[in-house]
Amino acid sequence: MKKIVILISSRGSNLQALLEANLPCRVAAVISNRADAQGLEIARKHGIQTAVLSHKDFSDRAAFDAALAATVDGYAPDFVVLAGFMRILTAEFVGRYAGRLVNIHPSLLPAYPGIDTHQRALQDGIKIHGCTVHFVTADLDHGPIIIQAAVPVLCDDTPQSLSARVLCEEHRVYPQAVRWLCRNQVWLDKAGRVASDRLEQPGSALISPGLE
Ligand code: GRF
Question: What b/e string do you get for 71-81 counting C-beta neighbours within 10 Å, with b at 16 or more?
């Protein structure tokens, strides 16, 4: 059975969705860069080993990432799953786990990389928003895409209501992506593209606002 390590920084709702999804893998550890991350308690309740490595204890990003890599490698995971891990990772860290490091981002990438995605989406007046699970590369929030979910943006949405709608879908697509990875049904090929040997299931069109 494959082994994964999950990296978090705070709330841990995606972590919870992953832990409750009965995935075909063992979660070897949950690592947080913040001791007060609520997700640590979620991990403990599921009997998962936790570790805290505060970035504040290191002089620079490279030193933190080197220590993080040493901690991660201690669990010998097949995949490293970023679930709300709010640190930009160095190219060296990302390269070490090429094809084995995935992230979930709250927008339909490549639109809205970075932070405040829901607020920016509302400001732009877009009608469809969503989330993306992707392999992590050194190009922040631009790695090869595994799966996306789209949701409608409603005219009375606030960043909070839109975020909640997107988050529901995050909790569906992230477990699916990790399941595919652990079953070797999706991988990063030598050209850096997402490859798959599973039968493609077409999704349905989302039209927003809906037609009369
Ligand atoms: C999610 O919106 C995720 O897409 C982003 O950070 C947030 C983490 O939320 N990367 P949670 O900690 O999983 O609840």
Answer: bbeebebbbbb
